[in-house]
């Protein structure tokens, strides 16, 4: 019997597999950041250990950093301390750091691919659940806890149970105004925030194959939002073209050797998955979430589900979510006034996202009641956006292009959504308080977020796209 | 790592589903660089109002309920990989979390810290919630050797699954790093093989 892509990569990285024990899995690349690493370095110190393979460890500062005035010291004392700690730990243990002020700095899951550090067939971990993003290149990439960060620092390996595999196939052609973000929000709404638990998901099908690398990263990024350990897409010419020529990508003979190997990275015809799901691209509308987990999403033209229609055991949690969001079941979300728009995060802060938004808002003006933050995923993206004049377009529309970081994706740095306010956000989590205490999040694509910025309300972007066509 | 073998305790019920790590410990409290002290902010936004006054309707503020076992609705610990969630629960004083479903990363993090996540059936979870609703002093026994969880008064019980390796780690109080450090030779052999 053939092997799935996950099995191929997994098997190639097993150092040891003993009955009754988890596998010892070799990790090719380990990304670290300021929030989940300090206790791991402390652990090494107290055990008297060095970092085992510092050259395979890359650090950046992203979660805690401000997104304005990055050249000034970080104002918030604890954030500054944590970022300083990272700098100190990296220096002491010989780990390369792309910290604030470095031209490669950015959100950890944005810079890895952008720099050609993320490569097909690799095993990649990071103390951050959205490490699944890197799976877009055909890697086994997953988030780990701090004890595991310590484990990888100490041994470049991880004790892991081999995961189950799921195939999610999306075939067909996406409609107008429907993007990768809508595909993944649709899938999560179909299978729930726990539907992928225990699995590695391989995304296939013609609608997936047609996506750019950036769009594929958006899909894989949110695998964790259905509970999956990771998600991946078999590499193809789109992948290889993206990787080629990047800062740290292999060159010359090393490229040829790697390329020959990468060509074998696909699930065999007769490989068996533990579960297979099929979706049609034509069924997907622009999506938006209404509740407090990413599974509580719907097509933007739909009514919010009613509590009474949920399973009895789920009704209290469901109603609690609607109450938190200040909305009612069985009503439309379209037309609801909003206060903030956040375009950013490791889900949607790449060049393609910024270009798409710029093209859409060109010649338009944001609604007066809305504050719009556009936060590029990396310093390189910020520079590129400026080089392309996107900053001018944003400014003219009343949007603010900030400096790179996680920003309002999580209420940890200075960019917080105030209590009670509504934010249409391109990030990946709508949990209670995720964007700041008592903030309310509607997750959506960059296009849908941009449309909300223009109208000041939750909006079906397709209506505005029509306008463009007939203008 | 903390050892775990057996425990009988009262329980704290939290019958909410999909409790994510941002509820367990909001991101703004992740700035500490040590593992201690997170218990103070466990479930912070449910526990306190904006002025940091305790909300009387939240279970941790209700003097009727206490104990070393937290019982929560299904899909507990979904969301981020922050180990701080496990540290916060443990630092507050819990040794066991019972639910009918756990998110993967949370479960791994808990086990790596000697916090025991026990997955029970939906029906048994329901019965624990019913028992504690009737009698807040309900006690639950957890026996890791026998992989057994029991409502003390009624004797209603269920066995639970745990990876045998993880079970021995908990019982002996050793962690993955202790184990894997002994495998350095195998790791170096693997690296040499890959390098060709
Ligand atoms: S952007 Fe958000 S999800 Fe991505 S790494 Fe930063 S905090 Fe995590």
Automatic annotation (TrEMBL), chain A:
Cofactor(s) required for function per UniProt: [4Fe-4S] cluster
Sequence similarity: Belongs to the aconitase/IPM isomerase family. LeuC type 1 subfamily.
Details of cofactor binding: Binds 1 [4Fe-4S] cluster per subunit.
Gene (name only): leuC
Subunit record text: Heterodimer of LeuC and LeuD.
Oxidoreductase among keywords: no
Gene Ontology annotations of biological process type: L-leucine biosynthetic process
Gene Ontology molecular function, alphabetical: 3-isopropylmalate dehydratase activity; 4 iron, 4 sulfur cluster binding; metal ion binding
Known EC number: 4.2.1.33
Protein name stated in the entry: 3-isopropylmalate dehydratase large subunit
Keywords assigned: 4Fe-4S, Amino-acid biosynthesis, Branched-chain amino acid biosynthesis, Iron, Iron-sulfur, Leucine biosynthesis, Lyase, Metal-binding
Pfam families for the chain: Aconitase (PF00330)
Superkingdom field: Bacteria
HAMAP family: LeuC_type1 (MF_01026)
TrEMBL record, chain B:
Pathway(s): Amino-acid biosynthesis; L-leucine biosynthesis; L-leucine from 3-methyl-2-oxobutanoate: step 2/4
Enzyme class per UniProt: lyase
Enzymatic reactions: (2R,3S)-3-isopropylmalate = (2S)-2-isopropylmalate
Keywords: Amino-acid biosynthesis, Branched-chain amino acid biosynthesis, Leucine biosynthesis, Lyase
A single GO BP: L-leucine biosynthetic process
Domain Aconitase A/isopropylmalate dehydratase small subunit swivel: 1-122
EC nos: 4.2.1.33
Keyword Acyltransferase found: no
Entry GO CC: 3-isopropylmalate dehydratase complex
One MF term in the entry's GO annotations: 3-isopropylmalate dehydratase activity
InterPro entries for the chain: 3-IsopropMal_deHydase_ssu, Aconitase/3IPM_dehydase_swvl, AconitaseA/IPMdHydase_ssu_swvl, IPMI_Swivel, LeuD
Family according to the record: Belongs to the LeuD family. LeuD type 1 subfamily.
PANTHER family the UniProt entry points to: 3-ISOPROPYLMALATE DEHYDRATASE SMALL SUBUNIT, 3-ISOPROPYLMALATE DEHYDRATASE SMALL SUBUNIT 2-RELATED-RELATED
Subunit structure: Heterodimer of LeuC and LeuD.
Protein name: 3-isopropylmalate dehydratase small subunit
């Amino acid at each position: 019997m053939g092997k799935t892509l996950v099995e191929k990569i997994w098997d190639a990285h097993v150092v040891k597999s003993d009955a009754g024990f988890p596998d010892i899995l070799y990790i090719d690349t380990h990304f670290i950041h300021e929030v989940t690493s300090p206790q791991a370095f402390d652990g090494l110190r107290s055990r008297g250990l060095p970092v085992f393979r510092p050259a395979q460890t890359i650090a950046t500062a992203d979660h805690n950093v401000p997104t304005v005035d990055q050249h000034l010291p970080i104002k918030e004392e604890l954030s500054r301390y944590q970022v300083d700690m990272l700098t100190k730990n990296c220096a002491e243990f010989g780990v390369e750091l792309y910290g604030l002020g470095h031209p490669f700095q950015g959100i950890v899951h944005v810079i890895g691919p952008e720099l050609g550090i993320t490569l097909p067939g690799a095993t990649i971990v990071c103390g951050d659940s959205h490490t699944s993003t890197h799976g877009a290149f055909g890697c086994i990439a997953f988030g780990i806890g701090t004890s595991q960060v310590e484990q990888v620092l100490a041994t470049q390996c991880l004790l892991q149970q081999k995961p189950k595999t799921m195939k999610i196939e999306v075939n067909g052609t996406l409609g107008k105004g429907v993007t990768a973000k809508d595909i993944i929000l649709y899938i999560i709404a179909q299978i729930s925030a726990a539907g992928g638990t225990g699995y590695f998901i391989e995304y296939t099908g013609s609608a997936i194959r047609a996506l750019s690398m950036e769009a594929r990263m958006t899909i894989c990024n949110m695998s964790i939002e259905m509970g999956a350990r990771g998600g991946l897409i078999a590499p193809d010419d789109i992948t290889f073209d993206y990787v080629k020529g990047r800062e740290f990508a292999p060159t010359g003979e090393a490229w040829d050797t790697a390329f020959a190997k990468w060509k074998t990275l696909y699930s065999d015809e007769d490989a068996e998955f533990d579960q297979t799901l099929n979706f049609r691209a034509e069924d997907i509308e622009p999506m938006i979430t209404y509740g407090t987990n990413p599974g509580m999403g719907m097509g933007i033209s739909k009514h919010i589900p009613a509590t009474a229609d949920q399973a009895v055991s789920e009704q209290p949690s469901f109603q609690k979510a609607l109450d938190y969001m200040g909305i009612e079941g069985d009503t439309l979300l379209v037309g609801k006034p909003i206060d903030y728009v956040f375009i950013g995060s490791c889900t949607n802060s790449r060049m393609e996202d910024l270009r798409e938004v710029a093209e859409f808002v060109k010649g338009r003006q944001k609604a007066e009641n809305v504050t719009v933050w556009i936060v590029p995923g990396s310093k390189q993206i910020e520079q590129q956006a400026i080089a392309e004049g996107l900053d001018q377009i944003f400014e003219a529309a009343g949007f603010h292009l900030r400096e790179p970081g996680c920003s309002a994706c999580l209420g940890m740095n200075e960019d917080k959504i105030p209590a009670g306010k509504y934010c249409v956000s391109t990030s990946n989590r709508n949990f209670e308080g995720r964007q700041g205490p008592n903030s309310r999040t509607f997750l959506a694509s960059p296009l849908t977020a941009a449309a909300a910025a223009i109208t000041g309300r939750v909006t079906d972007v397709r209506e505005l796209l029509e306008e463009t066509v007939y203008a | 790592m903390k050892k775990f073998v057996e425990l009988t305790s009262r329980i704290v019920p939290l019958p909410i589903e999909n409790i994510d790590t941002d509820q367990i410990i909001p991101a703004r409290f992740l700035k500490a660089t040590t593992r201690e002290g997170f218990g103070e902010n466990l479930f912070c936004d449910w526990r306190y109002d904006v002025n940091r006054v305790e909300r009387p309707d939240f279970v941790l503020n209700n003097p009727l309920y206490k104990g070393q076992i937290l019982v929560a609705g299904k899909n507990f610990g979904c969301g981020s990989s922050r180990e701080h969630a496990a540290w916060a629960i443990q630092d507050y004083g819990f040794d066991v979390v019972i639910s009918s479903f756990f998110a993967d990363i949370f479960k791994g993090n808990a086990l790596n810290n000697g916090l025991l996540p026990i997955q029970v059936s939906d029906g048994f979870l329901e019965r624990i919630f019913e028992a504690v609703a009737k009698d807040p002093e309900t006690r639950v026994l957890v026996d890791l050797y026998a992989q057994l969880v029991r409502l003390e008064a009624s004797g209603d019980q269920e066995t639970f699954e745990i990876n045998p390796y993880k079970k021995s780690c908990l019982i002996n109080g050793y962690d993955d790093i202790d184990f894997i450090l002994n495998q350095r030779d195998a790791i170096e052999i693997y690296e040499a093989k890959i390098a060709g």
